[in-house]
Amino acid sequence: MPLKRDRISEGIYVFTSGAYAEVTATVIFTGEGAIVVDTLPFPQETRHIRDFLNQRRIKPLYVVNTHSHADHIYGTYMFPEAEVIAHYQCRRFMERHAEEALAAAKQQTPQLADVKIRYPELLFNEAMTLRIGGKTIELTYSPGHSRDVITVHAVEDRLMVASDTVMPVPYVVGGDLDDMIGSLTVIKQKSLENLVQGHGEVLLRGEIEETLAANIAYLKTVDRLVRERIARGVPRTGILDITIEECGLSRIPLGGLVQKLHNANLLTLYDAYRSEMKARRTT
Predict the structure, then answer these.
(1) 244-272: per-residue pLDDT in tens?
(2) Could you give the count of Cα atoms lying within 13 Å of 132 in the half-sphere of its Cβ?
């Protein structure tokens, strides 16, 4: 699938990777310059975003890293004139892991040869608001997928870039299920016209509430079913009989990748809940 570019509303464009898991990056034009929310993992795709701005003679003022995962940050170095914004934990995680992970990735993936880690400079904790060129941009802490995720809300456009807080299946490996439910509930309270998922299709107004409700229901169902099977003594390998459809979602999006994400959720929760039970027995 080739790189896709969609105009979502006046001055807002979403780029969807054809090379990796339909990960998204968003460009928000303002009267003073552009805000780039996330970048794509491969330089050849992020270069299209940079060229798109150059052709319009628009200066990128900020790049927002919604979290530290490689598929969202590897293209940041291609915007040297922009200031990089992120949650403070994003910077912390990158300092611990990003260089080593990139070196390993370059050995496996030659397309990453030119990538350099660009660290965020402007950091915040719970929330931050930018007012630029007639637009109000609210950045909000949104943990669950990982501990450093943020969302980006273009207030006047009623558009949210939800990052990996919203995906075709919630993914909590390396994150926290309860935090994810809380973050999805916060988004559900917003009045939005469009929602950009971290991976996959942009959600339109009529789809947003239904999708958020389905994702919350999925997490609650997975939580219940995994705990029930542990209580019945089901072994770790047996936990994978819980289907994604049984939890209310489809296995079709992202070229079938959601099934792998679902299975990873099951195994992660199984291990976590078994550890909790062992800890209780020893206290």
Answers:
(1) 999 999 999 999 999 999 999 999 999 99
(2) 17
